[in-house]
Amino acid sequence: MKTEFGTYGGQHVPPPVLKALAELEQAFEAAKQDPSFKEAYRYYLKQYVGRQSPLYYARNLTETLGGAKIYLKREDLNHTGAHKINNTIGQILLAKRMGKKRIIAETGAGQHGVATATAAALFGMECEIFQGTTDMKRQALNVHRMELLGAKVTGVSQGTMTLQDAVDYAIGKWIERLDDTYFLIGSAVGPHPYPSMVRYFQKIIGEEAKQQIIDQENTLPDYLIACVGGGSNAIGLFADFLEESSVNIIGVEAAGKGLKTKDHAATMTLGKPGIIHGMQTKVLTEADGTISPVYSISAGLDYPGVGPEHAFLEETGRVTYTSATDQEALDAFYRLSKLEGIIPAIESAHAIAEVIKRAPTLPKDNIIIVNLSGRGDKDVGEIINLKNKAARLSRG
Ligand SMILES: *Cc1c(COP(=O)(O)O)cnc(C)c1O
Question: 3-state secondary structure string, 242-305?
Answer without folding.
Answer: CCCCCCEEEEEEEEECCCCCCCCCCHHHHCEEEEECCEEEEECECCCCCECCCCCCCHHHCCCC
